[in-house]
Amino acid sequence: MTEPCPPRPRFQTFDDPSHRKGAERIEALRAALRESALDGFVVPRADEHQSEYVPADAERLAWLTGFTGSAGTAVVLMESAALIVDGRYTLQAPEQVDTGVITVVPLAESTAEAWIADNLKRDQVLGYDPWLHTSDGVARLERAAVKAGGSVRPVPNLVDAVWAGRPKPPAGPVVVHPEAFAGETVAEKLTRVRDALAEGGCDALVISDPHNLAWAFNLRGSDVGHTPLALGYAILPREGRARLFLSSPKVDPALRAALAPVAEILSRADLDDGLGSFSGVRVRVDSATGAVALKEKIEAAGGTADIGKDPITGMKAVKNAAEIAGTRAAHTRDGASVARFLAWLDSAAEAGGLSEIAAVEALEDFRAAGGDLRDVSFPTISGSGPNGAIVHYRVTRASDRVVRPGELFLIDSGAQYPDGTTDITRTVAVGEPTEAMRDRFTRVLKGHIAIARAVFPKGTTGAQIDAFARAPLWQAGLDFDHGTGHGVGSFLSVHEGPQRIAKTGTVALEPGMILSNEPGYYAPGAYGIRIENLVLVEPRAIPGGERPMLGFETLTLAPYDRRLIRPDLLTPEERAWIDAYHARVRDTLAPLLDAETRGWLDQATAPLAE
């Protein structure tokens, strides 16, 4: 069986960044609170752009508490502290933090604001960093504090004041994203954005989302892990040149020359002056990523901060022809690498001694050998047995375990290529699976197929089809506690809004949007099951239909583990869909594979038995 390529520098590590220093660090923060005449401080897992992946110098929540998840909020008062996390992290958080000092609160039980309202005392003052909270976020904090009889106050970040050895801000180079992949010039994009501003009655836009900055100006960077972003801002007036505010070391003459016709590049330190030029001007500030500090500086200059949606977010979500062609090419290349990995995995697991880390390293190496790999799109989730039941499990050298016979192995991974971003999950049987495993897997697969085959009217939201994926599990009294799908970018974030397939997915799906299709089932302490493909929203012609309809094209190409499928639980239509999908996988990938892997793929994609 084909082996992965020789050792090479990794895009991910297996060190455990968590710690058990919560008591001393919380006490240091409390000392800073006393010096600042405050009674508490809010520490969100966020940078000043509300990014999912943040640079090392913005990992304040992890430094303070030891919790390394991608979402969460700590509230530290003088006599108590809480870490509020969502359903993805209810198992992980208690293992990482000192629960004798920090109470882990599931979001399903209480929000950060509700905890503040219940625990802040009358006349107490809660501090927050105005660069780490949106206007709406601050309004929620204010309401919670007032409910408790207290108040809130913006202050310089107190964690920074006590964080010895805090890393320096990133300064990676910013590069031009080729028009062949972008599919549209910067001038064309900015014209569309200015038209949207005019329709909204705004004179200018502050671009605070680095993803939107990257899309609008056809640039990419390396400031955060796994997403090619350059952290910075832009001011786009309805008339006149745009101004980009980027850390000076990131900018070279080539970038300045490329953007010179449409934009001036200034230092990040010049942003305050830029915001101070808005006297008498109505400025759109993104409600999702715009820090309340931006609003305050605009208003202090005599301008009006119009808090609302950045129009770029919706434009970016709808991929153009070049981006769609690129993502198809990326998924074909990625599919061949995943097929090589799965073939290798079968052999390695059977031989015994395969560890979770070894699987991660092998998959990354297969992708690197496949060509054009720029990064992984997120840290690979490689969970054997009970670790697979931890939805966002991240293997470390401390948690690494060997895949054992009779277990399930869940691997959720993705890659960044210059022409597209991938994200795929497969669950594999090692040895003989139990009937319960096969039942649960098949029910998850039925929900996955229901989304893939869905046909729905134009204007339908992700919330309206989320139940399609859950129905086969509901019929057995089962469910899963995460959304069914998230949006995906084009050589950008693997988690891109505003589209999603979830109970919270209120944005209408449009042709050109890319989403994940990933229902799951998790048996805590035993195993996890998740099946994920990426899908593209496309028009769907219905003979005799009266309304414009949409459906999905499945982009991901990799076989499902037939050993885990119970054909008797499938309808004839579901069996036919699986067989047709497997035939497509085989026909597309076989020419890219060596003879031995093609032989494995032939077996893995054989038609299901009746």
Largest beta-sheet characterization: 6 strands, mixed
Radius of gyration: 25 Å
* Main structural class: alpha+beta
How large is the share of residues in beta strands? 15-25%
* Overall pLDDT score: 96
Number of domains: 3
What is the CATH level 1 assignment of the largest domain? Alpha Beta
Globally, the shape reads globular
Instruction: Kindly identify the CATH topology of the largest domain.
Output: Creatine Amidinohydrolase
Describe the structure.
- InterPro entries: Creatin/AminoP/Spt16_N, Creatinase/aminopeptidase-like, Creatinase_N, Pept_M24, Pept_M24B, Peptidase_M24_C, X-Pro_aminopeptidase_P.
- The protein is α+β, with helices and mostly antiparallel strands.
- It has three domains: 22-162, Creatinase/prolidase N-terminal domain (Creatine Amidinohydrolase, Chain A, domain 1, 3-Layer(aba) Sandwich); 175-315, Creatinase/prolidase N-terminal domain (Creatine Amidinohydrolase, Chain A, domain 1, 3-Layer(aba) Sandwich); 321-599, Creatine Amidinohydrolase (Alpha-Beta Complex), CATH 3.90.230.10.
- It is 34% helix and 20% strand.
- It contains 19 helices and 28 strands.
- Strand 22 and strand 23 (496-501) form a beta hairpin.
- Helix 4 (112-119) packs parallel to helix 5, helix 14 crosses helix 15 (356-370) and helix 16 (435-452) packs antiparallel against helix 17.
- The protein is globular, with a radius of gyration of 25 Å.
